[in-house]
Amino acid sequence: MASKLLALACFRIQSYGDLSPRPRYPSMPKYPKGVADQESNVQGSEAKAVFSVVGMTCAACAASVEKAVKRLPGIREATIDVLNNRAQVLFYPSFVDEETIRETIEDAGFEATLIQDDTNDKSTQVCRIRINGMTCTSCSSTVEQALQAMQGVQRAQVALATEEAEVHYDPKILSYNQLLQAIEDTGFEAILISTGEHMDKIQLKVDGIRTDNSMRMIENSLQALPGVQNIDIDPELNKFSLSYKPEITGPRNFIKVIESTGTGRFKATIFPEGSGGRENHRQEEIKQYYRSFLYSLVFTVPVFLISMVFMYIPGIKHGLDTKIVNMLTVGAILRWVLSTPVQFIIGRRFYTGAYKALRHRSANMDVLIALGTNAAYFYSVYSVLRAATSPDFMGSDFFETGSMLISFILLGKYLEVLAKGKTSEAIAKLMDLAPETATLLTLDDEGNVINEEEIDSRLIQKNDVIKIIPGAKVASDGFVIWGQSHVNESMITGEARPVAKRKGDPVIGGTLNENGVLHIKATKVGSESALSQIVRLVESAQMAKAPVQKFADRISKFFVPLVIILSFSTWLAWFLSGKFHGYPESWIPNSMDSFELALQFGISVMVIACPCALGLATPTAVMVGTGVGASQGVLIKGGQALESAHKVNCIVFDKTGTLTVGKPVVVNTKLFKNMVLRDFYELVAATEVNSEHPLAKAIVEYAKKFREEEENPVWPEAQDFVSITGQGVKAIVRNREIIVGNRSLMLDHNIAIPVDAEEMLAETEEMAQTGILISIDREVTGVLAISDPLKPGAHEVISILKSMKVRSIMVTGDNWGTANSIGSEVGIETVMAETKPEQKAEKVKELQSSGYVVAMVGDGINDSPALVAADVGMAIGAGTDIAIEAADIVLMKSNLEDVITAIDLSRKTFTRIRLNYIWALGYNLLGIPIAAGALFPGTGFRLPPWIAGAAMAASSVSVVVCSLLLKYYKRPKMLENLVIRGITIE
After folding, report:
1. pTM of this prediction?
2. Which range is the signal sequence, renumbered to this chain (predicted)?
3. CATH level 2 (architecture), domain 47-115
4. Which terminus of the chain is more solvent-facing, meaning fewer CB atoms within 10 Å of its CB: N or C?
5. Residues 654, 788, 863, 904: which is the catalytic one?
């Protein structure tokens, strides 16, 4: 039994080298013949089965199971998890059943058992919500605590910089509507962005609707369509917002239904502001602050002139000092009248925010502003009323304090929102990659084009055939069904070199077709597309908080109450000092008394202290840093990854596909018997074609060169094929026993290895190549040398890392000879060879226990345990599976130099965060004592409240601008030197 299991297993990585398969485009749905045309009907009956698969040891095993399952009719998708020994299969029960799938897996040489899928019992959805009205970290903390307190919420993150919440919740316990209501109850406006269900959204404008009955008729017609989940209607704009499942239906179906509903009188188009989302809200917020600031200036400028300028112009001063009743002057009345609209109408937002915060027993910036301006305003009202009722009261008012304070804060908020908008430019640029229009082709049964139509690219549906002309952007993810061209994928992958495309090759939406016409079949549209996945990944990264932000969150909880206490203490200290003659009366300005002087100091302390700068210090820098990374082809998954990456002092490299190109090729052949090389490779290829191992594929590809006249050569039939784990394969081809494998396989079969063959094997190992022995009829006939070329620039990258004081280690499943040779070639001193996937993870943990902060750089399934175990996991060359990688950082260009870029960018970002904190804390530590009058006794210098308000507004703006300077990040000059010396990074 044991030998049978061994015989049915596949190559182990340790024999042929750590040749994990290159990341590739996601597998495309496989439909049985004739099914594609009735896709919507079939899709409705889709089922899922999960199998326990025993015997898988490496990526090659997973690939062979996947390939076997996908050969079956009616398989939509098969996902093989070699680490957990599971296979998840999406299929159509009308074409195939679970038992057939299970038998197919067993036929592939593995033991399979159908298990109950328990994912539905532990389902988690991720809901994203936009939150309007947050002003500081106290606001975001209040919302976050309210969400986390709800039963069914597993995790909630609220980001002040993006004004969004990401909530992981159990849909069986609560709905997204309850989440929205919880946010509304905290006093903020909540707008749903996505529910976490696999849905797309589109907004349609319908012309021709005259009655409510027509509206209901259209709604009912749309609701009846399969795949439509939810419909929201705006009767005033005749706007229909639909949520739907893109694999079942699409926007063209909706338009067709709408236009056929009312005997042709309805006309449907995509709503002009379709998916503006966050950007539209941002623009509206900028306009609101701008308008509020302009309106406040209309009243504040006259108040300022009356208080500060006209008092020094004799004629005007006389008019303003004219008394109306008792000591009440014209100037005081004008200041009161002009400042009241600023205080209560234009400044209403601060009252609203303060009320909402206090209602939930928290305090934010609005509370400070409302308290400070109200103290100045109502003391001024008291002063004016007392002057009107007293013949000798000479008090002064502070009406200009409140109005100027509010005006400066509105200016600061306007500049802050303006600057914050620029921090998310990376997402806007990514979204702009999608073309606006596409050419839809209609094909007949023979595949001939019978019609071309230009449509909005948002109307593309799954399985549409799209024409891409030279110079046009690819409109959707899919694969080429006709034509050949070169496509520039740099806008998605960051790789500048155009990629050749021909029939069957995958293409990515948003990339640029350079020459030649392509017809592509759309496979992933809307939220499924690679571009959407990248956008979502960057958005999630900008949502995630860096651990260092916890410092600011802790401070913000106590900041506002502490400032209020300090403010009251300042007023009380100065008031009591004045009352009991604690300082000379000459210190008191002529225009006020000791109470007014104390009040000004107290108000200044209250308004100069700003928790906003602290709250924005980290998220704005993370937003800009992750955006810059995305533009450089380095996707950093949030603040945690950024913070860990800047501390990295040890990097563990996988060999194959990371330090090497990852595509093995036959570089040498040595025969020990007289025979034609073509005949030799005919026998070897016939044996190896049955194997999924990367080395086997390299041999088959090389063999094809001897049969160039055939596009897809058919090899002789191999009988009694057996794959021997960790050693090789054997089969009977043309009545001859063929054994292909390593030295131990030959010895196990009592096959003598000639001295020439041993020498050849030793030479291959010295040259960092893998040697394969071929036995025909139990006699060693030849040796193949297979090489996986080193990536250009690998040696230079390791050298640069050394100069950055980062230690480099190589861990591989390949043999020691090859590993040591590669290590010495690139300059890595510490090498571990013949390691299993779990041993890589153990090595990472061992380094961590020695005090290193470890990054793991790998590209295959077998690297996953180490990627997860490392402080920072870097996946290299992730293609379009970018959003589902286990790594913390994804290097889209597959360039080793991007490892340096990722570490350098994280270091620069954290330098910026530290500067932000130094400024925000330093500002408050310096500003509060000055506002409290620390300099007044010695210098007579005091900070009027309106100047304190301007300083507070400037602090937030300066922090955001400091973060924005990261946009000008340049890669280290050492990397530029690589290009100067003519080294091309593949």
Report:
1. 0.65
2. none
3. 2-Layer Sandwich (3.30)
4. N
5. 654
